[in-house]
Every structure is written in structure tokens, then in C-alpha cells.
Amino acid sequence: MKRKYELNETELFNESKIPKLERKPHSPRSKELIINLFGTDRFIGEFDTSVHTDIRTIIIGLQRKINGKGKIPILSEERMNLVEKSLSNGSNFRNIKVLEQEMKKWKESRVWNQESVQNYYDKERSTGYHYHNKRPQQMLTTRCVELLGVKQKTEKISPPNYSLIVDLGCGTGLSTSYLSENVHGFMIGVDISPHMINVAVKECSTPNIDFIISDISEPLPFRSYIFDHSISVGVLHYLFQDDDDNGNSNNNSYNNSNNTRNSSNYSNNN
Question: What span, in angstroms and rounded, lies between the C-alpha atoms of 51 and 154?
Fold first, then answer.
């Protein structure tokens, strides 16, 4: 005799008695894609979220290609076709080639000013810059010290010849810190980016360093000839813009030579 609460096999496996859930058709979700390119936030278009990652990957690859630092990543034919279709339907760019041409124009029209620098060197990028560029910055700063002809701490001098040195475009203080460790004197680092200076203050704790936020393309807040030496590592190429349509030079730099007696500039582009 079966108990009342038991079910027989027919009742247990009768699928007709199981209520079926009604599945709603998938509705694609569109979202704007905005990417910071060449120091400016660019509106790329509005696309299905499922294709955002692939479009972003292609754009970052294009940026590296334009900067001469890489090439476009290879995606499957199906994914590339979907990117092309999405660009055609959701943006002003018919395809990847048109987007690349427009990105080249963006780079050529880029102007480095306080706003664009702050947009580009945010907190995350500034921190990454500090930890990925220690060795190159040290090598370039060493060369600057050699060009200046200042005596280093390893050279025995009695009494030591102390110098006041300004580091123009100091960034996160990598070059400034190296100077303080190897040269007798007091160092002042100057940079336009608040995020860069924040990292510099946090990472460079030696007492003979100070940092200020200032635009080195404008007159600096120091009296004339106060510094014994000045250095600038990997900065000069930001201070010059291409000629305009009338052939006038868009020179963004201000001659701060009146603030210093001896200067040394070294650019990463050399």
C-alpha cells in the first residue's frame, strides 16, 4: 500500500504537468563608447555592448600603430566583420580605415595644454608612468648631469659645491629624485599635471626636494637667475606645435632661460 504523500513514476516524470517559462526574445543594449585618444575624450559612437570590447581593442591598436609602437590586433574574420558593421551603423565612420584616417587627424591637431595634460595623465596613468619609466629616466638624467658638468656625490669635494637645480617638466619626480641622490644641492621639480605632482610628492620623500604645479610654457614664478642649473628630460617635444595653415609657427614654449645660469635638455625623441 502506497503512502499518500508519495508520487508514482508517471506523476513524477510527466512533463506535460511542468509549467513552461515563456522566454522573451533578447533585446540588444546600446551604449555610447567614449575613449581618451591623444589627450582628448573622443565620442566613437553608440554600439551594442557585446561589441564594445572588440571596437575598443581595434582603436587602441590603431593608436599604437599611429604612434609607431605597434599594430592592429588580429581578430577572427567574424569579429572583424561585426566591428566594421557596428562602425557603419552606429558611428560616423564607415569602416576601420576611415576611423584610422580620422585618428591621424586627431593626433595632428593635438595641442598640449593644461586641460589636455590633466585629461591624459590621470591618477592611474600617472602611477603607471612612475613605475614603468624608472630605468629610462635615470639613464637620461645621468646624461643631463654629464652635460651640465656638475660634480656628483661620488666625487670627493671639500667643501661640497651645493647647487640649486630646477627640473622642468619633472612628471612624477623620477629625474628630480635621481638628481637629489647623486648631486649636492636642492632640487625643485615643476610640472603642469597635478596627478603627476601628487605621485612625485608621495614617492620622493628626501628633504632636499620640493615640487610645484606650473606650466613651463609660461613664465615661471621665480626671480631671474635664481637657479644654478636646469634640466628637462623628455619634455621639449610637447612644447612645439606644427606650423598653421599660414606657415606661422605655433611655438608653445616660453624662454625661461632668465631663471637659470646653465641648462640641459634631453628628449626621449632624440
Answer: 57
Sole residue written with cell 610640472: 191
Q: Please tell me the number of Cα atoms within 13 Å of 174 on its side-chain side.
A: 23
Q: H or E stretch including 188?
A: strand 185-191
- Is the pTM of the predicted complex or chain greater than 0.70? no
Bridge partners, residue 244, by sequence:
none
What average pLDDT does range 120-144 have in this prediction?
Answer: 85
Q: Residue 240 carries which DSSP code? A: B
Q: Which residues are CB-neighbours of 55 under 8 A, at least 6 positions away?
A: 33, 44, 47, 83, 86, 87
**What three-state secondary structure class fits 76?**
coil
Please state, in angstroms and rounded to a whole number, the distance separating the CA atoms of residues 149 and 264: 10
Cell of 182: 647623486
Contacts of 211 (CB under 8 A, 6+ apart): 170, 173, 176, 188, 189, 190, 191, 197, 200, 201, 204
- Give the whole-angstrom CA distance, residue 82 versus residue 90: 12
pLDDT of residue 59: 94
